[in-house]
């Protein structure tokens, strides 16, 4: 698949870009700054010479031209970035991986965006696109560390069955990840918020935790 | 430990009562109706003769007299039940396992109670108690099926370290369960809401899913 990643210069976006490219996809990374995208692309390609990553550096505009587009910007920029690319994203599957979180002292806590979830706001900004929410619970550093696979179940939700399908296919193409259909975009609210719990566990147990569900045979 | 379970005639409460009794605790089950508590106690003891369960049947008033008290009522009755027992519960560890959920068509969706979580409302109703939120994600039927252990990580959060400790000890006493400290009671909101995702997965994959976190050595 040809995948664009908006906001790919942050840890989650660059980690995902590397992991997707290592799994055989053509990736174009976008950023508000083209130079910054070039820097990050060069870092990723230089860090993993054995993987011969195919990553193109663009700006968000260019990345939004891909077949499937991931929004990996900070959560408070997700829907404005989406809105600025409404024409390029029309008709496409758009995957939102942002979480609205804040740090209160030593603790991560979830924030509730106006429509309940970041993905809900993105879908509202992109009425002609098919938005899926996914990949919230995978530690960004683990995503970007190509020396080993990331063993994780990955929850996907969307109001469009075809978006759930495409997103799940993408997830399943990454070794040891398993996509699970978690229902409509209404479920993006608890899925996004739960990321605060994961971060909390990481702080408390000095680790990078991921989620697995027992009892599910897919 | 001597544990009281309020609202123990529902599936979650009766399942937990059976599991706790099978793990060697003395359990007193409460209900608004003493007769109903007796019925449920007799059902549990009759169903698992080999476990020789020590379960006493009381009403909520009697169950609130125990050393540690679990609130397993329906979510919309949790804080009013708690408020009616404020004196009995004063100074105690109170474990809230309720989730505010609704079913929209075929889908479970979380509701947001006024203080963000049911446990937050219960703590507000019980200013002299130490409230912990825990045991939201274990399928009720699995809890109550004593023919096999429930392999699950169990998230615990509280504003009182001693409540997290006591609750964790209780959880760790049940075979194959592992308590994890998920921070302050602010985290009850995403933990409770995430139950909707678990139920959604159960519907979608016709299973009873539980959660495990990879990468955590406790």
From TrEMBL, chains A, B:
Keywords for this protein: Oxidoreductase
The keyword Oxidoreductase appears for this protein: yes
Gene3D superfamilies: NAD(P)-binding Rossmann-like Domain (3.40.50.720)
Listed GO MF terms: coenzyme F420 binding; cupric reductase (NADH) activity; ferric-chelate reductase (NADPH) activity; NADP binding; oxidoreductase activity, acting on NAD(P)H
InterPro entries membership: NAD(P)-bd_dom_sf, NpdG, P5C_Rdtase_cat_N, STEAP_metalloreductase
A cellular-component GO term for this protein: plasma membrane
GO annotation terms (biological process): copper ion import; NADPH regeneration
Residue ranges annotated for the Pyrroline-5-carboxylate reductase catalytic N-terminal domain, each copy included: 3-99
One Pfam family per UniProt: F420_oxidored
Domain of life: Bacteria
Descriptive protein name: NADPH-dependent F420 reductase
Origin species: Actinomarinicola tropica
């Amino acid at each position: 698949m040809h995948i664009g990643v908006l906001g790919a210069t942050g840890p989650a976006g660059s980690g995902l870009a590397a992991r997707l490219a290592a799994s055989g996809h053509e990736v174009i990374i976008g950023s508000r700054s083209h130079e910054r995208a070039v820097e990050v692309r060069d870092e990723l390609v230089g860090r993993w010479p054995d993987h011969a990553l195919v990553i193109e550096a663009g700006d968000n505009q260019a990345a939004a031209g891909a077949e499937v587009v991931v929004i990996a910007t900070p959560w408070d920029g997700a829907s404005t970035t989406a809105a600025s690319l409404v024409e390029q994203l029309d008709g496409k599957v758009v995957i939102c991986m942002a979480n609205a979180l804040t740090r209160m002292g030593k603790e991560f806590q979830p924030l509730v965006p106006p429509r309940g979830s970041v993905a809900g706001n993105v879908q509202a900004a992109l009425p002609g696109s098919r938005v899926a929410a996914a990949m919230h619970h995978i530690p960004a550093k683990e995503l970007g560390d190509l020396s080993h696979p990331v063993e994780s179940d990955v929850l996907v939700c969307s109001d469009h069955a075809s978006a759930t399908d495409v997103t799940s296919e993408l997830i399943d193409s990454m070794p040891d990840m398993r996509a699970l259909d978690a229902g409509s975009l209404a479920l993006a609210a608890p899925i996004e918020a739960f990321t605060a719990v994961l971060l909390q566990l990481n702080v408390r147990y000095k680790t990078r935790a991921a989620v697995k569900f027992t009892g599910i045979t897919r």
